[in-house]
């Protein structure tokens, strides 16, 4: 004989567990614009051509889809543009309520602006281990 109360309790708990695994189906989500459109908008906003792919991907991951859609459509406010530009130049997102999140280091545009004269900090000036070799006779 099947105990109906135990069966319904199990089915309820299974349903709750399954719904926790499925991302919010009931909440309308803004679709992310296509990546080429986002990259073109980042090029236009920053003035760098090309903007490194890992940097664009990182910015997409930390900014909201709604913000990215408004940026691509050209309807974003100045604060949203500044937030993206700061993220592209520093490789870091600083939300108002939360800890800063670094998503890129060496591809950040702050290093691309000075790459002709300065190496990215923490990167050596030659091939790995070059300092262990004896200097060439001059």
Describe the structure.
The chain is mostly helical and 138 residues long. Helices cover 48% and strands 3% of the residues. The protein contains 6 helices and 2 strands, in the order αααααββα. Strand 1 and strand 2 form a beta hairpin. Helix 2 packs across helix 3. It is flat. The chain starts with a helix and ends in a 26-residue tail after the last helix.
In short:
By secondary structure, the chain is mainly alpha-helical. The chain has helices at 4-21, 35-46, 53-62, 65-73, 78-90, 109-112, and strands at residues 92-93, 101-102.
Instruction: Round the mean pLDDT to the nearest integer and report it.
Output: 79
Total DSSP E strands: 2
In percent, how much strand structure appears in the residues? Answer: under 5%
Largest sheet: 2 strands, antiparallel
Q: What best-fitting shape do the alpha-carbon axes yield?
A: flat
Question: What does the oligomeric state look like here?
Answer: single chain
Run of helices and strands? HHHHHEEH
Key features?
138 residues, mainly alpha, two-stranded antiparallel ribbon, 6 helices, 2 strands, 3% strand, flat
How are the elements arranged and paired?
Elements: H1 4-21, H2 35-46, H3 53-62, H4 65-73, H5 78-90, E1 92-93, E2 101-102, H6 109-112
Antiparallel strand pairs: 1-2
Helix pairs in contact: 2-3
